[in-house]
Amino acid sequence: MKEKDTEHTRIKGVFSSEKVAKVGAGTTVRKTTQTMYWFVEEDENGVIWVQPLNPNYVPSGPKQEVPREEFLENYRPEPEFYTHKVYPSIRKLNQTIARAERHRANGETYSAEYEFTNALKIDEENIRANFGLGLTYLERGDTARANDVFERLVKLDAAFEAEHKHLFNDFGINLRKNEMYDQAIRYYQRALELSPTDEHLHYNIARAYFAKADIANTVTHLRQALSINPDFTIAKKFLVYLKQQGLLPASAMPAVPAPSSPSTESDAAPTQ
Prior knowledge:
The protein is of the alpha+beta class. It has 3 domains: 2-76, no CATH class; 78-180, Tetratricopeptide repeat domain (Serine Threonine Protein Phosphatase 5, Tetratricopeptide repeat, Alpha Horseshoe), CATH 1.25.40.10; 195-272, Alpha Horseshoe (Serine Threonine Protein Phosphatase 5, Tetratricopeptide repeat), CATH 1.25.40. The chain has helices at residues 68-74, 79-105, 109-122, 127-140, 143-153, 165-177, 181-194, 199-211, 215-228, 233-244, and strands spanning 2-4, 9-23, 30-42, 48-52, 64-66, 76-77. β1 (2-4) and β2 (9-23) form a beta hairpin. α8 runs antiparallel to α9 (215-228) and α9 (215-228) runs antiparallel to α10. The longest helix is centred in the middle third of the chain and has 27 residues, at 79-105. The mean pLDDT is 89.
């Protein structure tokens, strides 16, 4: 329930809190007490984060920061609830996702879809399951269903956190490969809202605009990437290529060796 740290024991586990509400009016008013269960974790900076448990006893939804004094006063540890309810549910969810990922790695897209869907029945906001299902659809060329998953993912802040950057990267690449350029642009712009000084995101948006033959926006985002990191060589090379094709004014050409075409390397993962 707790995790050891070099300086102190960090808080981690399931806790409960109570919320008192009034029901009714006038002479019929009465108080009711509602118990809420939370998965709690203290980070390396001593910040305490609480995340609600969903009806399937899995941590789900956005995390909230709670001041230490408020937490110590209002939250009670629930080790037995964790052992008997939460841990088995998390274990089942992780096993389901692991099966789905194995099927996807083996090219068994329909079996992967089945398992990812089962995982989302347990936690509809699970990032790995959403990305996995979306990638399964994209790899199968099912852009309509992939777009449904995209609409879910783009609303979830957690999808753009550093721990998911590999899945984030794969999803962005596959959006573009499936010619879902508008979705790719919106996807990277959503990430940019959370990480506005990431030159890689501007570069990835530029690539999507280039695929749409929107040179003006391509150049805009390449320049924004270089304004953040003047030594971002891959963006410089892209501008050189545009100059070679007669798409860039001479005054904007950077002094780097000219490649034969824009880089075909995988999209850069966002830094957080």
